[in-house]
Amino acid sequence: MSQPKALPVLIQGGMGVGVSGWPLAQAVARCGQLGVVSGTGLDVVLIRRLQDGDPGGHVRRALAAFPVPEIAARVVERYFLPDGRAEGQPYRGRPLPRLPLQRDFCELCVVANFVEAYLAKDGHDGPVGINFMEKLQLPLLPSLYGAMLAGVDWVLVGAGIPWHLPELIDRFADGLDAELPVDVAGAESGSYRARFDPRVILNGFACMLARPRFVPIISSAVLANMLLRRARGTIDGFVVEGPTAGGHNAPPRGRLKLNERGEPLYGPRDEVDLAAMRALRKPFWLAGSYGTPRRVVEALKAGAAGVQVGTVFAYCAESGLDPRLRRAVLELAARGQIDCRTDPFASPTGFPFKIVQLPGTLADEAVYARRRRICDLGYLRQAYVRPDGRLGWRCPAEPIEAFRAKGGQVDRAERAKCLCNALMANIGLAQQRADGSVEPPLLTSGVAVRELKQLIDELGFEYRAADVVRYLLAEVTVPLAG
User: Fold this and answer.
1) Total domains, the chain
2) Residue range 312-321, pLDDT digits in tens
3) Is residue 50 part of a domain?
4) In a domain, 86, yes or no
């Protein structure tokens, strides 16, 4: 009987859309630590890679391993352009998600997540995980199944309370269908559900799957304890994320107060109770400004199994960020001139969202004002009950008058930014509009982006993921994974 592998000290964060793509996750996993791909937006990432000619042939290589060849072939036939797009040609879209889940949308999510997890795991035996946002409910079931079909080792879920996930994972591991309640404004809880049956979507294909470890990303010991009591199924540990971490953050407890920069103020009630976390007797990893050797050691001494780190990996050579954006941030950081601001209103989700203050991006008010508002990817749309009783969809980042007409609160929309399109632009997959404009990017990082100078001074501008792993573990003396 084989011995279980040691827990990783480092979890590489699942950052944004495609930033923590398969090359980065594979590079970290080859070092024996947990490499994580972001599961957000992979259906659009896949079809845009195919429309750009599939550089390197990696997508088609993974599709050749998909267990239902006719579905993989259908995706290639529909989206692959051997010579890439013509200059100025927009990307072809895909159906907006809705209820009940459409077959072609489910197929695309299954295939895309399979491809990303397959490529991250290819050619080594290091641990690979996938990160999902609980708030993105419609893609979650087919995306989870696709990653499990590729043998993903860990599933990490944040941006919400993922108490349904352990049961969903167990059902997919047993070859069964699964349902997930969908939040609908104006409807009773549980009134609407997304259902996914792999046997129907995959033309009768069904098999038992290995169960990945499940780790919720939470902000407090109270939430961790609630999940342990309420969830049906196994929770294998927790990532405990503080308010300095990148991307979406949990809002402060109590009434929202802002500092002089317009950022949410966090106080003692938002600090993690480490004694309470230790008392749960589950491994946990600390996240939020733990990207230095000293902070890794501090976490281990506090009883954590290790740390989750995003920002320092986001700017390494294997990151999916557009190289021009990556270099621009690193050069500003090297001069001590980079900043990151927590914006309480930018994200359509309503969660605070960290934004790098980089000229030429949507962080620039002039760039934001020039962009024509449009919601054509639809990940962050909210379902609501229309006056006629039917289901409708709205997003604070869509045109304000359209949002108002759907019953949305205009004050939520006035400062909202289209994260869906901006995050695609971050990784070089920006949509080309009919008027000749190109979707601008919007970078997110933890506040640790201000401290990248130390890493750059030691490793240079073109540092790699393996360099980061060695740097972070330089002072660790405990046995390491792998």
Assistant:
1) 1
2) 999 999 999 9
3) yes
4) yes
Q: Which amino acid is at 240?
A: V
Q: Render pLDDT for 173-230 as a digit per residue (tens, 0 to 9).
A: 999 999 999 999 988 888 899 999 999 888 888 788 999 999 999 988 888 998 998 8
Handedness of CA 291, 340, 348, 218 (dihedral sign): positive
Whether the model clears a pTM of 0.85, i.e. scores above it, the answer is yes
* Tokens 């259906």 found at: 43
List the CATH number of the domain containing 142: 3.20.20
Asked if residue 290 lies in contact with residue 12, where contact means CB atoms within 8 angstroms, the answer is: no
CA-to-CA dists, residue 236 to 6, 214, 257, 443, angstroms: 13, 5, 35, 31
Question: 353-356 and 340-343: which strand pairing?
Answer: antiparallel
Whether 248 contacts 158, CB under 8 Å: yes
276 found inside a domain? yes
- Does residue 147 contact residue 155 with C-beta atoms inside 8 Å? yes
Q: Which domain holds residue 259?
A: 10-334+452-472
In a domain, 347, yes or no: no
Distance, in Å, from the CA atom of 227 to the CA atom of 218, rounded to the nearest integer, reads 10
CA atoms within 13 A on the CB side of 130: 31
Residue 163 CA to residue 228 CA, distance in Å, equals 9
